[in-house]
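so i finally got all the pieces together for this one. its two components total, 816 residues if u count the protein bits. some of the lines might not be protein, just check the labels. i wanna see the whole assembly predicted at once instead of chain by chain like last time, that was a mess tbh
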Amino acid sequence: MTDAVSPLASPFPAMPMIAGVTPRVARAGYKDWGRCDLTYVELAEGTTVAGVFTRNICCSTEVELGRENVKRGTARALVVNAGNSNAFTGYRGREAVEQIAGQVADHLGCAREDVFVSSTGVIGVPLPKDKAREGVDQALAAEPCSWEEAARTIATTDTFAKGAVATAVVDGRTVTLAAIIKGSGMIAPDMATMLGYIFTDAAVAPAFLQQCLSAANLQTFSCITVDSDTSTSDTVLAFATGKAGNAPLVSFDSPGADAFAAALADVCRQLAHLVVRDGEGARKFIAISVTGAVSDESARRIGLAIANSPLVKTAIAGEDANWGRVVMAVGKAGEPADRDKLSIGFGGIWAARDGLPLADYDEAPVAAHLKGQDVTIEVDLGLGEGRATVWTCDLTHGYISINADYRS
Amino acid sequence: MTDAVSPLASPFPAMPMIAGVTPRVARAGYKDWGRCDLTYVELAEGTTVAGVFTRNICCSTEVELGRENVKRGTARALVVNAGNSNAFTGYRGREAVEQIAGQVADHLGCAREDVFVSSTGVIGVPLPKDKAREGVDQALAAEPCSWEEAARTIATTDTFAKGAVATAVVDGRTVTLAAIIKGSGMIAPDMATMLGYIFTDAAVAPAFLQQCLSAANLQTFSCITVDSDTSTSDTVLAFATGKAGNAPLVSFDSPGADAFAAALADVCRQLAHLVVRDGEGARKFIAISVTGAVSDESARRIGLAIANSPLVKTAIAGEDANWGRVVMAVGKAGEPADRDKLSIGFGGIWAARDGLPLADYDEAPVAAHLKGQDVTIEVDLGLGEGRATVWTCDLTHGYISINADYRS
C-alpha cells in the first residue's frame, strides 16, 4: 500500500463476516516494510471452492497447485503472501509453498490439497521458508481480523483496500457474498486475473460454483486491463461454506440459482472495477462500449485493443477527444471491421458516424465530458449484434513513475 | 519536427543524389507551423516500384490506392503530405488524393496511377484540397532540394531527420540506394510501417524489387515497435530508376542480385533502427534477441511481446534489471515456452538459466550495462532453433508528455 491514494479510490464497504470464514493476518516480513504481509483465512469443514487462474505460461507454483487442487472442489484454508510472488523460482519456490500447505494442514488436520496458497510481489526471488514458517505460526495464533485488514494485507502497489459485498435470496434464505481483491499493475487478465477472493455462506456444489465463477469472469475480470501485461500469479477463488443452510445449489435448476449467480457476477464486477480504479497512475476510469460487432467475443477483443492502446490512453489522460486514435485501435485489433461503417463517440455523443467525421460535431460537450473522472467511449461497428463493455484507466506520468523504479 | 532532439539521434548521413530522382519541397500549410510540409519527388521514365503497407483495417485512401497502384510496377512521382494523415475521412479524403495525383499526372503527362501519394499526421480531418493544390503547384516549380530537406519535410513528431544509404556492385556497376523515413509514435508495423522511401539507380524488375522489399521488411520494419500501436498510414515504397545501366535484376539468378538484396536489407535495417532511435520519449535503444524458439516467427512474436510490455520498457527506463518482467512477457506471448527451460540475460550476462535465478548472479555488471544508451536483452527458450532480433525503446515520461497533448 502506498501513501498517495488513487483519485478514483472507492471507500471500503461495510462488509459482514461470513459464517464459517475467519480471516487473520500476521507479519512475515517478506519485505522490510513494517506492515502485515501474510493473510490466513480459515474455512469451515464442508466448504466448496472454484477458481480461475492466469493463462500466462510462466505461471507460479501457487497457480499450478491451485489449478490442480481446485478440481477436488473442497477447501479448508487460504494463505496469501504479499511482497514476493515466488514466480519463476523453480524447485525452491515449490518447497516454500508445500511447506506452508503442510504447516496449515497439520494444524487443521486436513489434506494439504485443501490449503490454497497465493503469493504476489516481485518475480524471481524464492519465498524465504523461514519467514513463511514464522508468519504462518503467528497467523494461526492471531485474533480474527476485519475484512478491511485482510484486504490491506494482501495488497502490494495498491493505493486503497478493495472489498465488495452482495446478497441473494436462495431457497428462502438470504445468502451473503463478501470479497476482497488486490491489483493495480500488470493487469491484463487472460480469462483470469490478479488475486481476488470471494467468500459466501451459501451452500453451492463445486461444479456449479465453478460454472458461475467462469461465466462471471468472462464478463468482468476478462474485460479489464490496466497495462496489457498479464501477471504470472493471477488467481480468483470463490469459497462457499454452506453455513446459510440453503439446499445446496447444484445447477441452474436449483431454486435461487439465478439469484446466486447474479450476486456472484455483481461481486466480480465490483472487484474488477476496483482494480481499474486503482490502476497504476490512473486519474480517469474509462468504460468502452463496443456494439455492432460480428460476435460478443469480437466486440470484447476490439474493446481491449482500444483499452490497451497507449495512444488512446494518453489522449484520455490529456482530455483530448482524439477519436482518430480510437479508429486506429479498432483497425489494428485483427477483428472484422469496415472503416466506412464505423462510428465513434465519447460520453454518448457521436464524433464520427459511418466512417466520416460528423459535419455538425460540437466538441464542447465532449470536452466537458472528458474533464470528468468517468469517461465513456462508444464504438459501433455496424456489422452485427455482438457487444461488450471493457474497462480501463488512462495512462499518465504516474504509471511511469511507479514502474520505472518499483524493484530498485 | 520538435525542438528537443532525441538523445539517441543519429546524424544525417552524406547521401548522394540518385540519377533519375529529383526531390523538391513546398509549404502547403496543412498546419500553422511555418515549415515545408509537402514533398514531391520526380522519378525518371522507366522507374519501377514495390511497396509494403499497413495491415490496419482502417487504413487511409493513400494506402488503398498505393496498394492497388504498386501492382502495376511503374512509378513517375511521389507526393508526401505532412501534418494531416487524411485517414478516416471518407469520400472527401479520397477526392483530395485523386486531385493531387491528377495534378501531377497532367504536369508529367503520365498515368495517374504512376503518382504515389502518402499523408501523415492527425487522423480524421480531410486533407484541404485548396492547400494541396497550391502546395503541389509550388513544388512543381521549386528548385531541387537535398535529401535532408526532404527527410525534414516528411516528418511530424520526429525529432531528427532520418536517412540511410548503401551501395552494391551489380553487373559490374556500382548501384546506390538512398532512403528517407519518418516515424516516432504509433509504431508497431504489422508487416509494414511508417512512411519510408527507398530510391535506387539500379535497374530492377518490379516483381523482384517487391520480393526483395518484402523479405527485408520481415526482418526489419516488422521487428520494431515503439508503442504497439499500428498506424493507419504505414507505407514503405522502393523506387528503382535503372539509370545505373546494369542489366535489369529479375530474380536471384541475375548477376549481382544477392548483393542488391543485401544492400536493400541493410538500408531497411538502418531506417528501422532510426525510427526506434526517435521513439517518442526514448532514452535507450533496446535490442532483444530471442533464440531457442520453435520457429523464427515464434521467436519474433515473443520478442515483440517483450518489446511491447509497458512493464519491461519502464524497467529499462529505470535501469532496473527486472528480468521477472521479461519472464512475464514471454509467458503472455501466446507462443510455445517452457518456464523451466527459460533463460534470461542483459548485456550478454545471464540472470536466470533453465527457469532458475543464477545462484552466482552478479548484478553489478548488468547494472552498469543498463546505465548505457544501448541495452540488449537475451532470451533463450531452450526448445528449438528459431531465432529473431527485435528492437524497441524504453517507455518514459517523455512518451506521456508528447501524447497527452499532441492534438490539442
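The mean pLDDT of chain A is 92.
The longest strand of chain A covers residues 173-182.
anyway lmk what u think
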